[in-house]
Amino acid sequence: MTRAGKRPPLPSLPQELRSVPLRTIAPVAMLALLFFTVWLLLDDRLAAAALSAALTVLALLATVLIHRHRPHLQTGGVLLCLANIGGCLLAAWLFGRDALPWTYLALMSNFFIVRNGIATPLNLLLAAGLLLMPSLLLGPARLQALVVITLVFGFGYHFSRRLQGDRTRLEQLATLDALTGLPNRRALEKALQQQTNGLREARFRQGLVVLDIDHFKDVNDRYGHAAGDTALSDLAAILRFELRENDQVFRFGGEEFVVLADVGSREALACFTERLRKAVYQALRGPGGRITISLGAAMYAGEERWQDWFARADAALYAAKGQGRNSEVVAE
After folding, report:
1. What CATH number is given to the structural domain containing 222?
2. What pLDDT does 71 receive?
3. What is the extent of the structural domain holding 214?
4. Which is catalytic among the residues 189, 255, 256, 328?
5. Do residues 72 and 24 share a domain?
6. Average pLDDT over residues 103-130
7. Is 255 a catalytic site residue?
8. How far are the Cα atoms of 31, 129, 183, 185, 302 from residue 197, in angstroms, in the given order?
């Protein structure tokens, strides 16, 4: 452990990861609609140009939301899909079958702009709009275009679903600690951010406990890293067993763990931390005998930044260390 005040600052986890496909597709779609608008104006199709200009503004708004307002990433994606659909229907209305290649592109790209549950009804809306133009898809001579649209729709749905599933699995792996199987620091930061942004009644029921193994360096130095890894895994198992349904435990890093507990009051938090300390004292053993922990805890006190809440619990941990270890301190 580093000395108090020397810990590196904890960065906030972004509320939502930026989507590279969205950030690429949005400005391209906006520029394509802008070019289409200018072309229609030069061709003296004023009514169509006005519709295209409105779609361009919609794509511009989507681009701004996607690049600057991360909480509204999905909203920007929906607006971009609607701009794509409107542009395709307008082009099909003006140019007939010659505009169908743009439709294929929109059908495919929409599945990668928003999740399947949103892209599917939007793409069905596009297909329905095309079917309302009888000369475009209906009839024996038009069967090929209808088949291509169906295939593009199916393949787009299938591939985007596979990619989204792979991404979900990768994100789950990225938030788990490989040694203990507990959620890692990234997951902790996300959980704390959600807590500080949650309902007031729920926030003020939460207690944060920061704990680490006493003299862990001695365990590694005297008995090897394998013994240290075993101690960490055993501690994780003890904490899992002792926590209640609404509590969460994370491995923060090294020998340090963090518990987010729904306790309701400072007095209940003190009892909770004491129970954890006793459970570990009774159950955790290493090659050299008993292994103990020290704990620092703090109730949520209205902090706007979760880092401030964490700092209070962390300072309490250092106070517990200063008391001789194998002890707990709850911040005022």
Report:
1. 3.30.70.270
2. 64
3. 185-330
4. 255
5. yes
6. 87
7. yes
8. 37, 41, 20, 18, 10
